[in-house]
Design a protein that fits this description.
Strands 3-2-1-5-4-6 form a six-stranded parallel sheet. The longest helix has 23 residues, at 180-202. It has helices at residues 11-27, 40-53, 65-71, 86-93, 111-115, 129-140, 169-176, 180-202, 209-218, 231-241, 246-253, 262-268, 280-290, 299-309, 312-329, 333-340, and strands spanning 2-7, 32-35, 58-61, 75-85, 99-104, 118-121, 154-156, 165-167. With 341 residues, it is α/β, with parallel strands linked by helices. It has two domains: 2-152, Alpha/beta knot (3-Layer(aba) Sandwich); 169-340, Hypothetical protein af1432 (Orthogonal Bundle), CATH 1.10.3210. The protein is elongated and about 80 Å long.
């Protein structure tokens, strides 16, 4: 285990640099970071990174150094420009299983030089503690950190130009605690929604298929919290927690039935707002959900259920949405369902 101990953190001055020390520790192969001064904001920020980008990295703050070091059973490495050259001792340090790396934010007590098993210098000139930690961890792990898979919800895809980020939507459902049944339902809605989007795109209509994919897989993520109508509100909260785009959040928010207007929202106990799907992507996901239960069903079957559970007004909206999407697709959506069976 590799743990970084951050000494001398000053909340007013060091919040940004200590955050960078923590991010560097995580990215370059450490298992966690311990900070001497309590800083809940840094803890929260780092945990959000771990939640989104993955890994088992831990962070603790408000842990005084004397007690922590007293209880540490591995080797202690103090990074200091006054230490031995790293190249002279790195091979020896790789033999040890547990290493505590002390990174100071200010001048460290003289005891550190005596307590440390190794006082190590990345360079014997003034330099940044962040760069020193990065180089040390790179050398200690022999660059193996570069091949580490963090298995997060978000994954950065290396590319020559621009930015590419891949999101594991199923992992979000799993992490949030959705049941196997809900996850299977979301997969089925996704399959139908993507097929409808494909048919509409073939007619020359521009469809954001990435938004359809994300929205269809995540439309019921709020069911991790409740199976009532408030699942759409909970779903929005979860989507925002992961920093998902507004377009996807709107799909989640407007997927219930064929739309809920402000008056209906109040009666249902929802915040006063229009929850009617407006964009093509919102309509596709909402209707794919309408036509998916444990399996796929045609409009006629959906109408019967809507009349029984939601009433004539909701049923009329359902029929209108089906007609609108069928016209855009150049084919009755019922026929799309036939293709999936």
């Amino acid at each position: 285990m590799i743990v970084v101990y951050r000494y001398g953190h000053r909340i007013a001055r060091d919040k940004r640099i200590t955050t960078h020390v923590a991010l560097t520790a995580r990215a370059f192969g450490a298992d966690g970071i311990v900070i001497d001064e309590k800083d809940e904001r840094i803890e929260e920020n780092i945990r959000k990174v771990v939640e989104r980008f993955g890994g088992d990295f831990f962070i603790k703050s408000g842990i005084q150094w004397k007690q922590y070091i007293k209880e540490w059973r591995g080797k202690i490495v103090h990074l200091t420009m006054y230490g031995e050259k790293v190249k002279d001792v790195i091979d020896e340090m790789r033999k040890y299983k547990d290493i505590l790396v002390i990174v100071g934010a200010e001048k460290v007590p003289s005891e550190f030089y005596e307590i440390a098993d190794y006082n190590v210098a990345i360079g014997n000139q003034p330099h940044s503690e962040v760069s020193a930690l990065a180089i040390f961890l790179h050398m200690l792990t022999q660059g193996k950190w570069m091949e580490k898979e963090f298995d997060g919800v978000l994954k950065i895809i290396p590319c020559r130009k621009g930015k590419m980020l891949k999101c594991n939507y199923i992992k979000i459902l799993e992490k949030e605690g959705c049941s196997a049944e809900v996850i299977e339902h979301c997969k089925k809605v996704n399959r139908l929604a993507m097929k409808i989007a494909e048919k509409i795109a073939e007619q020359g209509v521009k469809v954001d298929t990435q938004a359809v994919e994300a929205g269809s897989l995540l439309h019921d993520v709020g069911r991790a919290k409740t199976h009532g109508i408030m699942h759409i509100i909970e779903g929005v909260k979860i989507a925002k927690k992961y920093g998902l785009p507004a377009k996807i959040i709107s799909i989640i928010e407007r997927h219930a039935g064929a739309g809920i207007d402000e008056d209906e929202a109040i009666k249902l106990g929802l915040p006063k707002k229009n929850y009617t799907p407006e964009s093509i992507e919102e309509m596709i996901v909402a209707h794919a959900d309408n036509l998916t239960g444990n399996g796929y069903r045609k409009l006629e079957d959906a109408i019967r259920e809507f009349k029984r559970k939601a009433g004539e007004k909701a049923t009329k909206k359902l029929i209108e949405l089906h007609k609108k999407l069928s016209e855009m697709a150049g084919i009755d959506i019922d026929m799309v369902i036939e293709e999936l069976k």
